[in-house]
Amino acid sequence: MEKPALATVAAASAVTTAGDFVELPATVSHGPLRIEYRWVNETSLDAPIAVFLHEGLGSVAMWRDWPQVLCERLGMRGLVYSRPGYGLSTPRAHDMKWPVDFMTAQARDILPALLDALNVEMQERKRMWVIGHSDGGSIALLYAALYPEALAGAVVIAPHVFVEDISVESIAQTKRLYETTNLRDKLARYHADVDSAFYGWNDIWLNPAFRQWTIATELASIRQPLLAVQAHDDNYGTMAQIDTIAARVPHARLVKLDAGGHSPHRDAPEKLNEAIEAFVLGSVGR
């Protein structure tokens, strides 16, 4: 595991203090990748792992201190990483478009390969929780469905199970803001190649072919504890998202927040942390 070249750090400007990096070999679904990651409570080797899966424009740096705060409450060791195309991980080539099933590829291929590269053994994975936000929540659901024996449970925050008009309308508005305001400069603090990160996410969500995307059928394979959280004032999705989860996964627990927007870990952290702590520690204690 190597540190980034000085040129890479310089190109990233003030994105973040460079963390660690791991190389993933090429497979049939992707070329060789360099993944930025950071451990939280790294020395707590006996503690269960919580893997944090970021939103569509997220990264290691954009989580800020929330993974640390939550891991302290849960007594866990945390793994935070930037997906390919985000943060300081391998950027998306500007002529490359994410496929409609890009989140399935992240759950099926990238996350297991990362865990392998970091020597996370199967016994550790069986005690592992995946905690995902927005697109990361969808990836967490897919991982839980694809590998039901390779985790202890999942927490998903403002996940997407299918495409709603409100999501597309808000994402189109975000594109207008990115191209006409200082939003690009703000996001550049979190990504070495901000245009790669932004348009990879924006282009697929605004692709007409993506309107038919859904993972509702896959949810029925989830067997481990599952907590789904949604705020009523989320402008990227409605309660129909987590209600669909409950219909497909009867044992899922839903938490509906009065307020918290699309990012409750930022806008309503105490209520969110309380809900996650009660659910996770209650599930572990059963």
TrEMBL record:
Q: Which Gene3D superfamilies does this UniProt record tie to the protein?
A: alpha/beta hydrolase
Q: Carries keyword Zinc-finger? A: no
Q: What is its EC number?
A: 3.5.1.-
Q: Name one GO molecular function term.
A: hydrolase activity
User: What is this protein called in UniProt?
Assistant: Aminoacrylate hydrolase RutD
What's a Pfam family this protein contains?
Answer: Abhydrolase_6
**Catalytic class of the enzyme:** hydrolase
Q: Where is the AB hydrolase-1 domain?
A: 51-275
Keywords tagged on the record: Hydrolase
Gene Ontology cellular-component terms listed = membrane
